[in-house]
Amino acid sequence: MGGHWADFQYEIYLNGMSGAVPRLPTDLTRLEELTEQRLGPGPVGYVAGSAGAGSTARANRAALDRRRIVPRMLRDVHERDLSVEVLGRTLPAPLALAPIGVLSIMHPDAESAAARAAAARGVPFILSSASSTPLEQVAEAMGDAERWFQLYWPKDPEVARSFLSRAKAAGYTALVVTLDTPMLAWRPRDLDQAYLPFLHGVGTANYFSDPAFQAGLAKPVHEDPNAAVMRFVGMFSDPAKTWPDLAFLRENWDGPIVLKGILHPDDARAAADAGMDGVIVSNHGGRQVAGSIGAADALPGVVEAVGDRLTVLFDSGVRTGDDIFKALALGARAVLVGRPYAYGLGLDGQAGVEHVIRCLLAELDLTLALSGHAGPGTVGPGDLAESAV
Question: Three-state SS for 41?
């Protein structure tokens, strides 16, 4: 890409010479409020909402906010390199776009727009099983850019096998298996609107286009959409799965496998013992268990348990460049960002997602430099202090 991610700020200032200002705020924490004003309560609630009274989403923020960066001076930071090795791939920065389903409720260009934005910036795009766009179409929109496939592990093993072979054929390199959603949590914002897009056949594109899924239907999807929706609901996830079932994934996927939703060190060890390649410390952005531990509070224990054996990634609560710095300091190799890019998509399509990526990485680049670091590799627990927020 040449230059530094931080150069984005000068681009903005130079554009200002001709009277142009950014279309979206550069303080990404303002995007949620803007989205609330511009989109309908159903879609906004589905993306912004959390489990229960929202205590876990707040705990995610508190866990990051409580940790404060301790900048160091007079270190040579004039040349910086944010690239990292993740799962055998070199990424230009320690960032990937988290899997978010049903993006068509935010913008008609949906997953394809977000994927194109990620591709344009060299950031991996993780496609949700529950996308509104078939995985092949998203792959096509990305060319040969880095993409990973997120699996909601269905009850029907034939559908699971079919998803994995389709993802492999479409050039998805890593498999991200979400473990924390064997059923949907109690989500009052969605319940109060009685809003669940899947029941309207939204977010079911990978299933409805799947030969193994179609094989279980008496009639084609378009002839009896309700039957298709009910088959989807019946197989979407499987609360009966246990650790030995991971062998199935290894038999049917020959790339890296990462387990998402790990919060306990013993679960991280079990992942390593099962031959997995990585874990994502995540509580699903506070969407699954109300009253759960904040993800950044769980991160150090997981890193201590398996950091030498597995790639540890971080997700849940990331809103700013300094949040990414803190996750790296706590031992994550890279982070996933979710809701901010969904808001960017809702507000300004592909350009909105690119804006979010560029703001995050410009701020990370500047935070690293101003704290005395020329790249992610030198950041560690000693760069943080805990305050009693």
Answer: helix
Active-site residue, 107 included: no
DSSP 187-230: -HHHHHHT--GGGGT-S-HHHHT-HHHHTT-SS-TTT-HHHHHH
- Token representation of residue 357: 């990526």
pLDDT at 388 exceeding the cut of 90 = no
Q: Are 66 and 93 in contact (CB under 8 A)?
A: no
Alpha helices in the chain (DSSP H): 8-16, 31-38, 41-48, 55-65, 110-121, 135-142, 157-169, 188-193, 205-208, 211-214, 225-235, 246-252, 265-273, 295-306, 321-329, 339-370
Nearest partner of 334 among 280, 270, 255, judged by Cα: 280
For residues 317 and 294, is the Cβ–Cβ distance under 8 A?
Answer: yes
Cβ atoms of 355 and 11 closer than 8 Å: no
**Mean pLDDT on 114-122:** 98
Residues 233, 198 contacting (CB under 8 angstroms): yes
Of 200, 222, 264, 284, the active-site residue reads 284
- Report the pLDDT averaged over residues 351-359: 98
Please tell me the total number of residues recorded for the chain in this structure: 389
Position 229 confidence tier, pLDDT thresholds 50, 70, 90? very high
Report helix, strand or coil for 321: helix
The C-alpha angle 93, 95, 98, rounded to 5 degrees, equals: 160
Q: What is the dihedral of CA 36, 357, 109, 340, to 10 degrees?
A: -20
Handedness of CA 373, 377, 381, 387 (dihedral sign): positive
